[in-house]
Design goal:
- The chain has 104 residues and is of the alpha+beta class.
- Helices cover 21% and strands 41% of the residues.
- It is built from two helices and ten strands; from the N terminus they run H-E-H-E-E-E-E-E-E-E-E-E.
- Strand 2 and strand 3 form a beta hairpin.
- The protein is globular, with a radius of gyration of 18 Å.
Length: 104
């Protein structure tokens, strides 16, 4: 009986390892630093290394990743932007009801 329980636990642990990358995760500083995101509603956000930020709708400002999201302080918008990176590389925000990708 102990053998069967151990086998079930092993199979469950292995399946978690393989499916963990299939779930969205909050973005990290590395995901954003030096990148530009093109959002589906026309916003183009540039997250410069060192915390500088520029967006065509928000202006110049700063950014940083916090435990609750990406804090942005810009000329025309201040707030927390929740950004999750999807398994396919798409970025989604529930607060903005939008999705985006790294600009080419």
């Amino acid at each position: 009986m102990l053998c069967c329980v151990s086998l079930i636990a092993l199979v469950a642990a292995i399946s978690l390892v393989f499916t963990a990358s299939a779930f969205p995760a909050p973005v990290t500083t590395a995901d954003l630093s030096g990148k530009t995101i093109c959002w589906d509603y026309g916003l183009i956000s540039t997250f410069c290394p060192g915390g500088k930020y520029y967006a065509n709708m928000a202006g110049n400002g700063t950014w940083r990743v916090t435990s609750v999201g990406v804090e942005i302080r810009a000329e025309h918008w201040n707030g927390i932007y929740d950004i999750d990176k999807q398994p396919d590389g798409m970025l989604k925000s529930l607060t903005k009801h939008s999705s985006g990708r790294y600009c080419k």
